Amino acid sequence: MPTLAPTADPPLQAARSTPEIGLLAEITADLGAGHDVEALLQRFLLPIVVLAGAQAGAVRVFCDDARRLRLIGQIGLPPEVAESERSVDRHCGVCGIAADEQRLAWAGGQVDCGLRAAAALDGCAQVLAVPLTHRGRLLGLYNLFFEATTPPEAGVQSVLRAVGDLLGLALDHLRLERENLRASVLAERQAMAAEVHDSVAQTLTFVKMRLPLLQQAIEDSDAYQALQYVGDVRGAVAQAHGSLREILTHYRAPVDPQGLLHALADCAREFPQRTGVPLEFDNRAGMLALSAEQEAQAFHVVREALANVAQHAHARHAWLSVQARDDVVEIVVEDDGNGPGAGPATTHGPAAHHGLTIMGERARRLGGCLEVAARDGGGTRVRLAFPRAGAQPQGAP
Question: What is the spatial distance between Cα 32 and Cα 302, in angstroms, rounded to a whole number?
């Protein structure tokens, strides 16, 4: 049967001759230096065993599912014992008491667990569990094994509680870093989806709309019209290919280097050719001094709004206006079509919902707001308002 390693372990003997007063200061300094937390927990296992006067020790942290504790380091335990206790249920034995009640838990013969049973073979039947907690959250724990039948004195227990709180803080910071990393990755994925939707997907939608017209022209033997549609499709595919290459290279769809107003003027010229719907562009903003990020976000909101006009509104006319006043930029897209919620295409389906969601996210990144409402006289009115570069974010005036 496995037994504990001999008490006269050379590392333990050497550690017992070192001062213990600076333990908390040393832990605090290492936390500030940003060391790997699991390596930090293992490094301080030996000083903690020495401080407590224990004969052996182990340190555990939660597995990813938060239902089990995994062993990340041990001192004085036979390899076969450490291997058999590599992972335990968080409610098991003395570990469970410390975890559930978030306090130092001392166990002799009344609490059973695999480690205590193995330790008992060498007379080391007492176990002290030191929880690592922060703001009421248990993040890991130390197991300390003793030959003595009484727990460490109150002063030592106070230091162990302080150590547990400090190392719990370190584990909580690690948890937050992992959560922030996951959130950052998710945000990047959402941004990538928005860029693809606002550049490549919209261009491919235009291609999809042109293909039935191309097929009809071919069936009617209208070579002139068929060649026009082929040119439209060829140009759109080239544009989609260029946008995709730009996204893959810079994680961003290309923006007109001459600025937002020039890009919107180009949209106004191209929109009737692409859709057959006249679009009136009214620039009352003069010159706009916007950041590249602001121009990109605003341009994609307008493109999505115009795409909705082309695909869903069944409009006969559309309007695009830009004005700037009181440090706020206001862009409005209007049409005289069906109006918001008039048909299933505007109220149902993942594509419509996804597009509106992305438009709202872009407005929030601008520190502004997006309004989608019925237009006076019929149709839909989409209004984007956001502060100019350097102005404080605010709502719509």
Answer: 47
- For position 370, what pLDDT does the model report? 94
Q: Which two tokens stand for residue 180?
A: 């922030």
List the chain domain ranges. 10-180, 258-397
**Cα separation of 201 and 185, whole Å?**
22
Distance of CA 216 to the CA centre of its chain: 47
Correct CATH for 10-180 of 3.30.390.30, 3.30.450.40, 3.30.470.20, 3.30.470.10: 3.30.450.40
Alpha helices in the chain (DSSP H): 10-15, 23-33, 37-43, 45-52, 79-84, 93-101, 114-120, 154-196, 202-219, 223-250, 260-275, 292-308, 344-347, 350-365
CA geometry: angle 205, 206, 207, nearest 5 deg: 90
Calpha distance 141→124 (Å, rounded): 19
Residue 68 has pLDDT above 50, yes or no: yes
3-state helix, strand, coil in the chain (%, to 5): 50, 20, 30
Entry pTM: 0.43
Summary mean pLDDT of the chain: 77
Paired strand residues for 282: 321
- Name the architecture of domain 258-397: 2-Layer Sandwich (3.30)
**For the stretch 237-271, what's the b/e string if a residue is b when 16 or more beta carbons lie within 10 angstroms of its beta carbon?**
eebbeebbebbeeeebbbbbeebbbebbbebbeeb
